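Continuing the batch. This is chain 6 of the set; chains 1 through 5 are on the previous pages. Same settings as before, nothing changed between runs. Recording input and output for traceability.
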Amino acid sequence: MSTDNSPETPADDTYERGVAMVTEIYQGEVPALPEGTMAFNDVMMRSLFAEVWDRDVLSIRDRRLLIMGVIAARGSTDVWKLQAQSALKRGELTPDQLRETLIALAPYAGYPVVAPLIGPCETAINDWMEAQD
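Output for chain 6:
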């Protein structure tokens, strides 16, 4: 069995499944690079998006909520905004539910860590609401 998964000799459609999942999860907010552009991206598409996000045991919404908890605990404002935008676009969370995630996370992750996420959260909500009009 060959272990050569270079773009010249693709072993299967794992990369394409990863790209499809990124497109679905992030609703076009995260562009998928062509295979072979960057090794890190290739591994991420195959392992994270095709093998983890594509599993059917948890829904995308469930996975997103778990990841949002980790993102909040780390205080990653840009990544929080991306997740919030995508959750709204996919109909996974309403604006009120998105705000509630911050209320629920603050006691666990810490108010000083979660408070900076309020601005990006509201920006994502406002942008989404404007797109609805």
